[in-house]
Amino acid sequence: MRFLLLVALAFGFAQKKPKSSSSNLPVSPARKIYEQGVKYNDPLLQIFALHWQLAEEGERFGLRDTLAQTYFKAGFFRQAIAVSEELLREQPRNADLAEVRALSYFYLQDSKGALEAYEKLYEITQSPQHLYQVITLQFNLQRYGECQMNIDRLLSMPESERLTVRISTPEGQTQDVPLRAAALNVRGVLFRLQKEDERARKAFEEALKIFPDFLLAKGNLEEMNRQSPSSPNPEGRR
After folding, report:
1. Dihedral angle sign, alpha carbons of residues 93, 99, 101, 105
2. Mean pLDDT calculated for residue range 37-63
3. Is residue 21 helix, strand or coil?
4. Partner of 121 for a Cys bridge, out of 34, 98, 199, 211, CB 3.0 to 4.6 A?
5. What element of type H or E holds 165?
6. Does residue 43 lie in a domain region?
7. b/e per residue, 48-70, with b = 16+ CB within 10 A?
8. What angle do CA 114, 115, 117 make, to 5 degrees?
9. Is residue 198 in a domain?
10. Residue 2 lies in a domain
């Protein structure tokens, strides 16, 4: 069976822009260099200036917070994780830093690290969108029992009807899909794995009632109609 790990608005709804540290930096060469980095969108120059300021002033939380987010912006995900984890030991309920950590693991394609980070992020935010990220990661790690329980949890949330998630198809198309429909599609694929085709069909149909143009659910339903019940390797897209 072929599975698609969805970005699921990980970048679109979760990314936070790095905070400007201008208010944290006194007038100094380091501040001027940092502001030049911001002006020219040069994160490497910003990182240099932040380290200079840290060397002069000591380990101030605000500067390290900006450093973690600037590392993330520059694509230095391992460094972003290192700084954010250090700061989360001081402020374990800081959602912005927890999100930087989760996204960094995600973009490193470290599914286990990303799952653990998103589970901790969801504990802080109780966001249905963060819970959907947990669901997709549990699915791809074949933690199907936990995945199903979290689908049930997501479907019970009233916000799942109005919030959306950006989903990419294997053909490269993207759609903004209601979270409820997206979760039902994952449920359908899980039922197919368990060879419960009627329940899978019902889940896909429910997803399409919510969002009739949902390409992945349409594809999964059409595929079920093409294949006989005895097909050994049904494919599912999510």
Report:
1. positive
2. 93
3. coil
4. 98
5. strand 164-168
6. yes
7. ebbebbeeeeeeeeebbbbbbbb
8. 65
9. yes
10. no
Residues 6+ apart with CB under 8 A from 165: 6, 8, 9, 13, 129, 132, 176, 177, 178, 179, 182
Whether the predicted pLDDT of 3 surpasses 60: no
DSSP, res 160 = G
Which sign, positive or negative, has the C-alpha torsion 194, 169, 18, 128? negative
What are the tokens at 234? Answer: 């049904």
User: Are 149 and 87 contained in the same domain?
Assistant: no
Residue 53 tokens, joined: 């300021």
- Could you tell me the two tokens for 75? 């694509």
DSSP state of 7: -
Question: Which residue range is the domain that position 176 belongs to?
Answer: 143-223
Q: Per the domain annotation, does 3 fall within a domain?
A: no
Instruction: Give tens-digit pLDDT for 169-218.
Output: 888 889 999 999 999 999 999 999 999 999 999 999 999 999 999 999 99
Report the C-alpha gap between 80 and 148 in whole angstroms: 31
What CATH number is associated with residue 57?
1.25.40.10
The reported pLDDT for the residue numbered 238 is 61
What is the rounded distance in angstroms from the CA atom of residue 89 to the CA atom of residue 101? 13
Distance, CA of 3 to CA of 6 (rounded, Å): 9
Tokens of 174: 């993207």
